[in-house]
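Chapter review: from sequence to fold.
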Amino acid sequence: MINNIDREFAQITDYWSPRVVADVNDQSVKLAKLKGEFVWHDHEDEDELFFVVKGSVTIQYRDRDDAVLGAGDMHVVPKGVEHNPIAKDECWVMLFEPAETKHTGDVVVEGTKSAAQQRAHLQPNSTRSTGA
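The token string follows.
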């Protein structure tokens, strides 16, 4: 299956709502559009890789310098480290993290998405475009 990143991002209508686009071994590849401030949280047992496709995002930390990322930049948030992403304007990110990673760690907010919700659009034998 071939995925086109622009078509995948076009399917995302809500900010801070990750969408699984592929699974690689035990890792999920997720896309998300960010805008505004998210929520302070951590992932106790999982690292989280942010790759900025478009725009910019600041990953705030309580115990270290913030990471300011622009298009083409990537940054790993270490497991167990509390962080809060902020995007002044719309930002497109690709995330790599273990499939079981909770969207907002142990913090539950109105926009928290379960793993099932993040992959609800993935159906066996789906009719998704292959780019052919």
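Two observations follow directly from the output. DSSP finds two helices and seven strands in the chain. The first strand starts at residue 19 and ends at 24.
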